[in-house]
Write a structure and sequence with these properties.
The protein is an alpha/beta fold. The protein is built from two helices and eight strands, in the order H-E-E-E-E-E-E-E-E-H. 29% of the residues lie in helices and 26% in strands. The relative contact order is 0.14.
């Protein structure tokens, strides 16, 4: 029985080593960087759904990471700190937009480089920004507008029906309403 115990411990140790090796490989090849690059800031009215460690992309290619978010107590705008990979020099007129990955996915910052000769330096602020679009807010506005439209149409039909009603004991067929 002592021999079986040693064999089970060795098997467990081998499984544990393989699991740790797999975890190390997955972390090393996950595409997440340790934050190397230079920092930039951007101001937005809304950053709904944007997470710290979110992607920063140019043309769909990841070039950086969102490293921090905070609120400006004077203007109440959201300030996002991001890093951009070294070797990518962005023009001063670069635009930043918060974009949805998919209908159910998270959000990321999409950078659109401009044509300015001067480049953004570490710590500078991207001034051309487009805030996050809330799908819940858009859906709410759509439902409200459809409901309002239906209520308006319903009010017009009731007011212009001309009082055609089929009351009494006539038992005849109903005449179609004219519009």
């Amino acid at each position: 029985m002592g021999r079986h115990g040693v064999l089970e411990v060795l098997t467990g140790a081998v499984v544990l080593v393989v699991a740790v090796a797999f975890l190390a490989y997955a972390v090393a090849h996950s595409g997440r960087s340790a934050g190397s690059g230079y920092p930039l800031e951007a101001r937005f009215d809304h950053i709904d759904g944007l997470a710290v460690v979110g992607d920063v992309r140019i043309a769909g290619v990841k070039v950086g990471t969102v490293t921090a978010t905070r609120i400006d107590p004077k203007t109440f705008s959201a300030i996002v700190t991001l890093t951009v990979r070294d070797g990518i020099e962005l023009p001063k007129d670069t635009g930043a937009a918060i974009t949805s990955e998919s209908l159910l996915g998270g959000k990321y910052i999409s950078l659109s480089p401009g044509g300015d000769e001067a480049a953004l330096k570490p710590g500078q602020t991207i001034t051309i920004t487009q805030s996050s679009v809330s799908l819940e807010e858009l859906l709410g506005k759509f439902i409200f507008s459809v409901t309002s439209l239906n209520n308006q149409k319903g009010g017009q039909q009731d007011g212009t029906s001309g009082g055609q009603s089929q009351s009494g004991s006539g038992g005849g067929a109903l005449a179609p309403l004219s519009k």
